[in-house]
């Protein structure tokens, strides 16, 4: 306060004559004796100790030590400290007690420097515990309570900065109301609560900055206003100020009139971050309110990191200027009327729920935008009791609402109501409404439906036009009302989807839009092709084993071959180092091998993504006779595929058998492999928007063959290069079947599929040994082309509507494969081997496989 009105604050207790007399006495005491008995000057500061009467008037800087205590009859002041020049410091140590029926401790700085107040004891005032005022010539005002209690019926701490500096108030103990005012000449205002509790009648914390700087309030303890209509925190930045910031790191804030009330009349941003409890204790008041004034160009941001907020409106934001508004929540919001109420008049408005719940007695979220871009994104639970889960209105701008896959939005009448035109709803979670899941008030809206979406209630288009529904990967049954088929548009974003609108009655404009995703069944031929290709490749690598074998008499029976001149087992072992294999003297080979492969088909060309996997095992035996090798094998495995977003899946059990042969032609050779088998396929197709699952099963048969021509070039003692040309054919035939378990079961006709593959491969081999154990390592690379041949479509029926199922992917696909492997002899007649490869194809797919096994010769 200025010197001319320093007594104004106590006129509510005494008349103006008494005030004049007291202030005159203060001036006399300062001039004659700055230190009363028990208060001793010590190096520029007066130290007060022991028991002293009230109305203790002091000048300059003062320390009340831990022994200081006000005694005797209560006076107007416990202690009154005034400075007329320079900076001043006033401190109370822990253990000190200052009390009065008016002001426990009053401090005035009429000098030219900073004012610093450090409090750690007990200060008790009938009206105010501590009153601090500075005049126009001063600079910074700092008040720090490190511990203790400060109480007053009006305020615990009351501070006025009329100087030209900043104001900082920090409390850590027990305080009645903290009331701080920056006059227009001051700058920043900061209030920090480091734990403890603040309790008041009208306010817990009152911060008014009419200066030129920012206003910042930070809390971490308990704050409560117990009076009718009172606020836990009330903070206001005047027209000359800049940013208004409130940060709650923990604790609780309550008030009958409102938990937190923030208003920024200045030119800066308003930023709110809360992590504790904020509540209004009266049903008619809101919990957290933040607003920017008309003309404000700054932003308004409210972020709930955790905790709970409850009141008539849990969070209410109002931006009357032209800046942007953002609300982010992650905890629990409960409003007797509305969970979140947001209004922005000029800028963009964004509401993001990353988790938690938002509940309102009428609306969960009520959002109004007047121009700009309005964005609402929810990933938790949002509910409105009697009206809407989400209400979004934009008079001239655009609105985008995203309901995440795990979100739940519900309302007594509508899950979502759109006011205005040109909105976009991205539906990925559950949307429910008593009258309709979604209700449109305007035209030219877009509804994106994803497979994870669920609608409890229809989508009511209210006879509007120019609307677009986009169905993404998955199957759907979407109920619509007041839908004009010929005045709106429906798109499917995956070419494997089949759209059926015959279920909409043109008279009532109501019915079902049905979308069928056929990828689960269409994926079967590709899965068989991949599995068969893996088995053919596995057998082909076994055939590649070509070590020296025992000498033969070409005409002798296999079981009675002439043993004359046959190499010893040691000679054969040594001769087989080149390929890391082991054979007995008769050249019989038994092998067992397994494979595991995965394929990722990215979304492209209007087709959704697909992930497939294969597991298999095969075992066989072969025998060499002169320039021929013959072998037989059998095995089985499993295939599986998962559609994008989990919208469907298929799995197949496979059993197979086959044979192979090699004819050596000098330095070249010709290989042939034939395989055939049975496959049992199970499919699941999740029906989005309704939570159903259509299941089916069917049998199938397949055959596959491969021819390979190869030769080997020696590149040195241990290196060799093997180029090869391969041609592969795979055919499969499947029974027809009908799904079960849903409201849109599909009947599929019997069908077949055929494919060819041409491959050029080069294999670089390195042969060595370690401790007498032969070892063989290789690198390989290949380029290939795959073609689907013959008819690719087949018939299907759903809800008495026939349609055609098309094969997945391009008819011709090009690709490349690289890989590496090894073959190591463990003992005389046992070796292990493994290889791994990766494949890229022109249809945006990636695949990888691992094969391994054991060979035993006996």
From TrEMBL:
Residues 565-577 have a biased composition (Polar residues). InterPro entries: Autotransporte_beta, Autotransporte_beta_dom_sf. Residues 554-577 are annotated as: Disordered. The chain crosses the membrane at residues 12-32. Pfam families: Autotransporter (PF03797). Keywords: Membrane, Transmembrane, Transmembrane helix. The keyword Calcium does not apply. Residues 583-858 form the Autotransporter domain. This is Autotransporter domain-containing protein. The lineage of its organism: Bacteria, Pseudomonadati, Pseudomonadota, Alphaproteobacteria, Hyphomicrobiales.
């Amino acid at each position: 306060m200025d010197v001319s009105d320093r007594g104004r604050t106590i006129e509510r207790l005494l008349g103006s004559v008494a005030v004049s007399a007291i202030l005159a006495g203060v001036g006399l005491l300062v001039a004659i004796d700055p230190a009363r008995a028990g208060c001793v000057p010590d190096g520029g500061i007066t130290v007060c100790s022991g028991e002293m009467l009230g109305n203790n008037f002091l000048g300059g800087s003062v320390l009340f030590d831990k022994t200081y205590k006000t005694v005797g009859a209560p006076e107007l002041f416990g202690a009154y400290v005034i400075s007329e020049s320079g900076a001043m410091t006033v401190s109370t140590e822990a253990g000190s007690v200052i009390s009065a029926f008016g002001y426990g401790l009053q401090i005035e700085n009429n000098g030219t420097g900073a004012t610093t107040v450090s409090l750690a004891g007990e200060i008790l005032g009938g009206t105010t515990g501590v009153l601090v005022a500075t005049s126009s010539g001063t600079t910074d005002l700092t008040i720090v309570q490190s511990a203790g209690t400060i109480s007053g019926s009006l305020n615990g701490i009351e501070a006025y900065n009329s100087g030209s500096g900043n104001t900082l108030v920090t409390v850590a103990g027990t305080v009645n109301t903290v009331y701080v005012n920056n006059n227009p000449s001051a700058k920043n205002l900061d209030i920090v609560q480091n734990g403890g509790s603040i309790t008041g009648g009208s306010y817990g914390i009152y911060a008014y900055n009419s200066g030129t700087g920012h206003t910042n309030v930070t809390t971490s303890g308990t704050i409560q206003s117990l009076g009718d209509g009172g606020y836990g925190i009330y903070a206001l930045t005047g027209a000359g100020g800049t940013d208004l910031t409130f940060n709650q790191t923990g604790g609780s804030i309550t008030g009958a009139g409102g938990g937190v009330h923030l208003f920024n009349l200045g030119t800066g941003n308003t930023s709110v971050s809360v992590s504790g409890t904020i509540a209004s204790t009266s049903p008619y008041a809101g919990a957290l309110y933040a607003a920017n004034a008309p003309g404000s160009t700054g932003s308004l941001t409210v972020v709930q990191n955790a905790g709970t907020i409850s009141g008539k409106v849990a969070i209410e934001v109002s931006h009357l200027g032209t800046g942007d508004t953002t609300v982010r929540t992650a905890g629990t919001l409960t409003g007797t009327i509305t969970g979140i109420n947001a209004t922005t008049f000029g800028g963009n408005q964004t509401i993001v729920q990353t988790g938690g719940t938002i509940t309102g007695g009428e609306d969960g979220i009520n959002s109004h935008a007047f121009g700009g871009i309005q964005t609402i994104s929810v990933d938790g639970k949002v509910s409105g009791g009697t009206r809407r889960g989400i209400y979004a209105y934009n008079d001239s701008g655009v609105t985008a609402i995203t309901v995440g896959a795990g979100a739940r939005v519900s309302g007594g009448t509508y899950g979502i109501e759109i006011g205005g035109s040109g909105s976009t709803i991205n539906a990925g979670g559950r949307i429910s409404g008593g009258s309709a899941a979604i209700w449109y008030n305007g035209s030219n809206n877009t509804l994106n439906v994803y497979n994870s979406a669920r609608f409890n209630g229809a989508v009511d288009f209210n006879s509007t036009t120019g609307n677009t529904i986009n169905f993404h990967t998955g199957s759907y049954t979407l109920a619509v009302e007041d839908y004009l088929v010929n005045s709106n548009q429906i798109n499917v974003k995956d070419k494997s989807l089949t759209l059926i609108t015959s279920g909409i009655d043109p008279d009532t404009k109501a019915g079902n839009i049905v979308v069928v995703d056929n990828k689960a069944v269409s994926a079967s031929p590709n899965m068989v092709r991949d599995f068969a290709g893996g088995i053919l490749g596995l057998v082909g690598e076994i055939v590649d084993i070509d070590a020296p074998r025992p000498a033969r008499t070409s005409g002798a029976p296999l079981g009675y071959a002439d043993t004359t001149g046959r190499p010893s087992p040691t000679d054969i072992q040594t001769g087989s180092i080149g390929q890391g294999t082991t054979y007995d003297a008769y050249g019989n080979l038994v092998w067992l091998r397994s494979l595991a492969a995965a394929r990722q088909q990215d979304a492209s060309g209007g087709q959704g993504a697909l992930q497939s996997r294969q597991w298999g095992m095969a075992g066989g035996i072969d025998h060499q006779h002169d320039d021929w090798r013959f072998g037989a094998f059998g095995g089985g495995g499993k295939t599986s595929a998962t559609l994008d977003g989990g919208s469907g899946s298929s799995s197949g059990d496979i059993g197979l058998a086959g044979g192979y042969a090699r004819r050596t032609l000098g330095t070249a050779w010709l290989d042939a492999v034939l395989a055939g088998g049975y496959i049992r396929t199970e499919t699941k197709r999740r029906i989005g928007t309704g939570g159903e699952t259509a299941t089916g099963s069917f049998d199938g048969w397949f055959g596959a063959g491969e021819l390979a021509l190869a030769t080997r070039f020696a590149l040195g003692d241990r290196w060799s290069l093997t180029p090869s040309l391969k041609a592969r054919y795979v055919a499969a035939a499947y029974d027809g079947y009908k799904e079960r378990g849903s409201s849109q079961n599909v009947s599929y006709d019997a069908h077949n599929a055929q494919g060819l593959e041409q491959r050029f491969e080069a294999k670089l081999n390195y042969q060595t040994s370690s401790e007498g154990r032969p070892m063989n390592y290789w690198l390989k690379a290949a380029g290939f082309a795959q073609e689907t041949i013959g008819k690719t479509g087949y018939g299907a029926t759903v809800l008495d509507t026939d349609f055609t199922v098309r094969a997945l992917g391009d008819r011709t696909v090009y690709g490349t494969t690289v890989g590496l492997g090894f073959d190591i002899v463990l003992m005389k007649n046992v070796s292990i081997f493994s290889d791994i490869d990766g494949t890229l194809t022109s249809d945006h797919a990636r695949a990888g496989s691992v094969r391994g096994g054991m060979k035993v010769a006996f």
